[in-house]
Amino acid sequence: MEMEIDCRDLSVREINRTIKEAVKNGEKRIVLLNPGAKHYLAAGVVGDVEIIVKGSAGYFAGTMIHGVRMIIEKNAGWFAGDNMTDGYIEIQGTAGDGVGQGIYGGTIVVRGNAGARTGEIMKNGTIIIGGNSDFMTGLYMMGGRMVVLGNLRGMAGESIVRGAIYFKGEVDSLGKNAKVVEIDEQDEEWLKEILKAHDFPTFTEKFRKIVPIKKRFVYGSAPSEEG
């Protein structure tokens, strides 16, 4: 069984209040009909629940979620998954700027292209982009892993602190403190596993990765060469 919410004539506050009440009452699958690309859908939802968005979402879809599995069947605006701590977001179309900004954990998958600053200040977790990722991908990245199956635009890895950006296509230019290195056997194993798990081709021959050049101190953790 699943619960349906028709979002057409509801405010975002009403939609999210209804979602949270449903989760509290034990609902495991919630379908959002006529989402109309509204902003902040499922913001702050916590719980073991699947949320299906039957259309596009606006800005900050799934911001600060924990434990939620969220499927957006079309596109998403800026900052999808912003500051999520655990869970899964899949965007079956394209995404705007700032996908996965500041995430602490969980996985975000974008089937198409992503805008600028993907994974900005992400601390942990995984982001997979099925197409290209735009300007300053990985800006101030502090941890976690990102996989881009297409190309990276200018200033990729700008001021990266920790973590790694795996990419298969070309990179227009690198940002400060970023360098490109070859992947090793451990990287290859992880890539094959994660790509297979999310229904992407598992060929890893052309992959390289962007990592920090210099050691940087991160509050609360030891310095590291490559995160």
Secondary structure layout:
Blueprint: E1 3-6, H1 12-24, E2 29-33, E3 50-53, E4 66-72, E5 86-91, E6 107-110, E7 126-129, E8 142-148, E9 162-167, E10 178-182, H2 185-197, E11 208-212
Parallel strand pairs: 1-2, 2-3, 3-4, 4-5, 5-6, 6-7, 7-8, 8-9
Antiparallel strand pairs: 9-11, 10-11
Radius of gyration: 17 Å
Average pLDDT score: 94
Structural class call reads alpha/beta
- Secondary-structure element order, as H and E? EHEEEEEEEEEHE
Number of DSSP E strands: 11
The parts where pLDDT drops under 50 for at least 5 residues are 217-227
- Provide the β-strand percentage band: 25-35%
Proportion in helices: 10-25%
Spatial strand order of the main sheet:
1-2-3-4-5-6-7-8-9-11-10
Please tell me about this protein's structure.
With 227 residues, the protein is of the alpha/beta class. Helix content is 11%, strand content 25%. The protein is elongated and about 50 Å long.
Précis, in short:
The protein has 227 residues and is α/β, with parallel strands linked by helices. The protein is built from 2 helices and 11 strands; from the N terminus they run βαβββββββββαβ. The radius of gyration is 17 Å and the shape is elongated.
Describe this protein with a few key phrases.
227 residues, alpha/beta
